[in-house]
Amino acid sequence: MIATIEHMSPRRPRDDRAPSQVDVAQLAGVSTQTVSRVMSGQDNVRPDTARRVLAAVEELGYRVHAAAASLASGRTRVLGVIVVSTDRYSSAALGVGIQQAAAANGYTVSTAAVADHASAEAFLEAFDRLERQGAEGIILGVPLELESPAMRARTERTPATRSERTSLEEDAPLAVDQRAIARLAVEHLLDLGHKTVWHVSGDDYWTETQQRSEAWEQTLRDRGIVPPPLIPADWTPESGYRAGRTIAAIPEATAVFVSSDEMAFGLIRALHEAGRSVPDDVSVVSVDDIALAAYASPALTTVRQPFEAMGRAAALRVIAQIEGHEAVGEMPSTDPQLIVRSSTAPPRTA
């Protein structure tokens, strides 16, 4: 008897029941432990194996059923996230990583947004609001200290973690060295032959702004260069545009370190409008490496940060705190990466 295609294919679940982890494993040709590792975001699975598992998940429509699990366990399986109301790329990318890790582990995400420059009381109220909504753990995507007495009282009853550290010594799942970001940018421009580097900073409400500005200044001083005046901005393209008009009016300015790609877009437009070419007249290095950075004109030289990985790590950490086991998938401090493209070049006089 000739075997049919159905006989030769891995078994699929009947139409009258939802697909299970066993079904995914059979279709992908792997063990259920491997399926579990892929779904929980662990990185100890071969890329081709992970692709097979994810393809099987998609084909079968397999989902972790949070509602059923919650009913059986009496738990909500909700993660809370406190964010600042903003359209910054970093916040969105962090959110993507948090959602990915939460979904893979059978959790849903509830978000509480607070206004930019909100008071500490507003953050605490957001924390309390998420607790009332049943959040079992909370991720802070905001510049809020966990060590304050009011916050410590809350974290004693509800696990919490930051989405990133404000310093390398703090206890958080992933750190990007903000000072290293500035050093990479400034040293790249100085090594090209520029005599100094101007800096367009982000909003000083954020710790990363302070750390990058300090490292920009120190890197110049280490090279025997007196830093030029800092140009403050607020992360928006509009503030970058205003900073670009300032730079355009300074003939000796040939190199700029801008603290975000979005501000760099505004800055480059202002320079072009003033008749100053990038990179022929002014070289520009920015931070983040958002998707548009590679397609700008010119393509941006930028310092990449792993935002989605940071979000996944934060979610895995707080899930581990909730469930009382060692976090799986936590990552050590991650070095930022300089991505050299077309917005930097040696100065004309070099």
3D architecture notes:
It is a single chain. Helices cover 43% and strands 13% of the residues. The chain contains 13 helices and 10 strands. It has a 6-stranded mixed sheet, with helices on both faces. A 4-stranded parallel sheet has the order 2-1-3-4, with helices on both faces. Helix 9 runs parallel beside helix 10. The longest helix has 17 residues. The protein is globular.
DSSP strand count? 10
Order of adjacent strands in the largest pleated sheet: 6-5-7-8-9-10
- Return the domain count: 3
Average per-residue pLDDT, rounded, comes to: 84
Q: How many DSSP H or I helices?
A: 13
The appropriate CATH architecture of the largest domain is 3-Layer(aba) Sandwich
Low-confidence stretches: 1-9
List keywords for this structure.
434 Repressor (Amino-terminal Domain), six-stranded mixed sheet, Rossmann fold, 10 strands, 350 residues, alpha/beta, globular, 13 helices
